Amino acid sequence: MRYLLPAFVAFFFIIEGTWFQVFFPPSTEQDLHWVPRFAFVTVILISIYRGSRSGIFYGMGLGLFQDVVYSTVIGIYTFSYALVGYMAGLIFVQSNQDHLSYCSLLLWLWRR
Amino acid sequence: MPHFFSNKRLILLMVGIIILVILVGLTMREREQATIPEQIMRDSVGVVQSVFQRPAYFVRDIYDDFVNILNVHEENERLKGQLNDYAMLRSEVDGLREENDSLTSLYEGMESLSSFDTIPALVIDRQPDRWTETIGINRGTQHGVETDMAVITEEGLIGRVQYTSAFTSQVQLLSDGERTNRVSAKVSSEEGDPAVGFIEGWDVDQDLLVLQKVDSENELEPGQFVSTSGLGGLFPADLPIGEIVDVQVDEYGLTQNAYIEPSADFFHLNHVLVIERNVDNIEGIQEEFLQQEEEEDESEGSDD
Q: Nearest 5 degrees, angle CA B209-CA B151-CA B162?
């Protein structure tokens, strides 16, 4: 069970680059391009439920992989994902039972 | 307003930013080769990606087949029309091939600049947010792939190998607008020398490739075919790129820009070919040229 969460994040990370582009390829007809961020949303959820500390580590790990595998410059995603992971964890600290705040955050993310 | 960061965390944040700046500074330059840890990470992710990707392509192919069946009748009509031209083309090609054989046999051991071998590869990752920039393929240095090799589909050129690791490599697409990403291309015309220019990126509004720096004396027309010139030194000559759709004079009025509809389908890349140029031959040809020149020099010298 310990490895379930990392495996979950890894699964979504792989899906973003592989399955998504095969089944929903962007086309010239649409102005809107869908960019999947499943793994990132998962990291935010983990951070909300388990606190800032796990948020930082999951964010940093995911960001590092994102940098190395999909782009050429290392550090951008590593830093920003870790930061956002930390920030998302603050919601957990401040409003322990207030589901409304993180639901609204998630809705905002999905709409992007 | 609550304190977001205590003192200790503020220091950690500063250290984080410093590390970020150093890392970005070190990796931002155009590098010859990715570092060993990066290669290992890419390879291990690449293995998992290919495991995921194969069944996805399988399902997608079944779906595409289903759609194709619906269009079979239309396509059949169209193909019958094309078949009439085929016989004529066939005889012309046979004639040209014989002529070509006889001419090349005159130059013994010399193969043309466009000779190459191919390495088939599967596209294992492509991120929608870097859609026009890079793809990952499941062939690396172990299979003979090296940086700057050309990558094609059956229809035409799509890009060059940017980074390699042992079992995977990253391909920079033609449509990537990065400044260092240029391909020397030529427009073949029926009379005279071909017009030469550079493919420099992707026009986002029209979804077309842009061919720049073509001399304004050359007359370009929509419908002309564009292929690699082989003058860049990296790619073999005569790989098809696309067809001209629109021609415009550039902002200074000295050169022309042409907009090109790529012949390869950039939206459905799954099987690609990496081109291994026959370097031995090229070196052989160069040596031959040098020898000939030396001989000519000597003979001129003896005449005097």
A: 90
User: Do the domain assignments include residue A51?
Assistant: yes
CATH number at residue B195: 2.40.10.350
| Residue B149 located in a structural domain | yes
Task: State the smallest CA–CA distance between residue A110 and chain B in angstroms.
Answer: 16
Q: Do A18 and B49 touch (CB under 8 A)?
A: yes
Task: Give the model's pLDDT for residue B1.
Answer: 47
User: What residues in B contact A21, CB-CB < 8 Å?
Assistant: 125-128, 131
Closest-CA distance, A3 to chain B, in angstroms, reads 17
pLDDT at A108: 61
Of A15, A28, A74, the CB nearest to B207: A28
ipTM above 0.90? no
pLDDT of res. A62: 92
Query: How many distinct structural domains can be found in chain B?
Result: 1
Most B CBs within 10 Å: which of A66, A68, A87, as the mutation test of the B interface?
A68
Residue B99 falls inside a structural domain: no
pLDDT of B107 reads 63
Judge whether B112 lies within some domain.
no
Helices A76-94 + A52-65 axis angle, to 10: 160
Asked if B282 and B163 count as a contact pair (C-beta separation under 8 A), the reply is: no
Q: Which two tokens stand for residue A7?
A: 């495996």
Residue A112: per-residue pLDDT = 47
B146 touches B117 (CB < 8 A): no
Total domains in the fold of chain A:
1
- Collect the ranges in chain B with pLDDT lower than 50: 1, 302-304
Is B100 part of a structural domain of the chain?
no
Contact A19 B56 (CB under 8 A): yes
Angle at B78 between CA B76 and CA B79, to 5 degrees: 65
Q: Please, what is the Cα angle at A112 between B18 and A31, to 5 degrees?
A: 115
- All residues of chain A having their beta carbon less than 8 Å from the beta carbon of residue B43 are none
Statement: residue A106 has pLDDT above 70 = no
pLDDT in tens, B59-115: 988 988 888 888 888 888 888 888 888 888 888 888 888 888 877 776 655 555 556
